[in-house]
């Protein structure tokens, strides 16, 4: 399966382009990409970004697809599925991805064949940017986008997804969901160094 790494966000809380912010010697996004590529079920990582950032991300040497919609994560997922077919979707600011967890989600996705295989917390909160999506999900997403409804979680709930109950999984897998929103978050990355 291909991993679609979403990299179109504005990073307002961070104050600059966070995905190129150097963490332990390399851009933050490379930590996410390298970790997801360690999963046995992932063959390739593709970066999904906006037109204005395309050239910058091309320097990393990965295939780039452009999100023309620019409506947030829903647009990124739509673009990924449209261009790639089934995909494991992850945010570019998730440097602590657990490759075993990615494999677990992809295995469940292939075994059960839902539109979406998404981790869900006990309180109902979903982790849509650490999930496997079927190309068939495009129809539901397109319908929602046409109505001006850009909430990815809303479209997921309409698709009869397979929920992975997070609390039943190994506790260390929860680190996978950690994402960097501000510079203070960087200190939470294991082995973090600013150089």
UniProtKB/TrEMBL annotation:
Query: SUPFAM superfamilies in the record, alphabetically?
Result: Nucleotide-diphospho-sugar transferases
Instruction: Show the catalytic activity.
Output: Mo-molybdopterin + GTP + H(+) = Mo-molybdopterin guanine dinucleotide + diphosphate
Which InterPro entries does this one have? MobA-like_NTP_Trfase, Molybde_CF_guanTrfase, Nucleotide-diphossugar_trans
UniProt-recorded Gene Ontology molecular function terms: GTP binding; metal ion binding; molybdenum cofactor guanylyltransferase activity
Give binding positions for GTP: 6-8, 18, 67, 93
Check the record and name the Pfam families matching this protein.
Answer: NTP_transf_3
Q: Does the keyword Nucleotidyltransferase apply?
A: yes
Mind listing the UniProt keywords for this protein, alphabetically?
A: Cytoplasm, GTP-binding, Magnesium, Metal-binding, Molybdenum cofactor biosynthesis, Nucleotide-binding, Nucleotidyltransferase, Transferase
Which residues does the UniProt record annotate as the domain MobA-like NTP transferase?
3-145
Cofactor(s) needed for function: Mg(2+)
Location of the protein in the cell: Cytoplasm
According to its UniProt entry, one GO biological process term is: Mo-molybdopterin cofactor biosynthetic process
**Enzyme Commission (EC) number:** 2.7.7.77
Q: What does this protein do?
A: Transfers a GMP moiety from GTP to Mo-molybdopterin (Mo-MPT) cofactor (Moco or molybdenum cofactor) to form Mo-molybdopterin guanine dinucleotide (Mo-MGD) cofactor.
Description of its domains: The N-terminal domain determines nucleotide recognition and specific binding, while the C-terminal domain determines the specific binding to the target protein.
> What family is it from?
Belongs to the MobA family.
UniProt protein name: Probable molybdenum cofactor guanylyltransferase
Which organism does this sequence originate in? Thermococcus litoralis
Taxonomic lineage from the root? Archaea, Methanobacteriati, Methanobacteriota, Thermococci, Thermococcales
What gene does the UniProt entry assign to this protein?
Answer: mobA
């Amino acid at each position: 399966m291909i991993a679609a790494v979403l990299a179109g966000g504005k990073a307002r809380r961070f104050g600059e382009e966070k995905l190129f912010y150097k963490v332990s010697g390399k851009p933050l996004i490379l930590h996410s990409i390298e970790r997801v590529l360690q999963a046995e079920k992932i063959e390739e990582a593709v970066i999904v970004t906006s037109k204005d950032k395309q050239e910058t991300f091309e320097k990393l040497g990965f295939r780039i697809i452009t999100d023309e919609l620019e409506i947030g994560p829903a647009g990124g997922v739509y673009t990924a599925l449209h261009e790639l077919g089934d995909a494991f979707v992850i945010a570019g600011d998730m440097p602590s991805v657990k490759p075993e967890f990615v494999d677990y989600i992809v295995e469940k996705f292939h075994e059960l064949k839902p539109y979406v295989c998404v981790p869900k917390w006990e309180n109902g909160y979903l982790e849509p940017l650490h999930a496997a999506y079927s190309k068939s999900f495009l129809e539901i997403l397109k319908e929602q986008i046409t109505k001006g409804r850009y909430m990815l979680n809303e479209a997921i709930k309409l698709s009869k997804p397979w929920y992975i109950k997070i609390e039943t999984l190994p506790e260390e897998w929860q680190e996978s969901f950690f994402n960097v929103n501000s510079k203070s978050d960087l200190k939470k990355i294991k082995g973090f160094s600013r150089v």
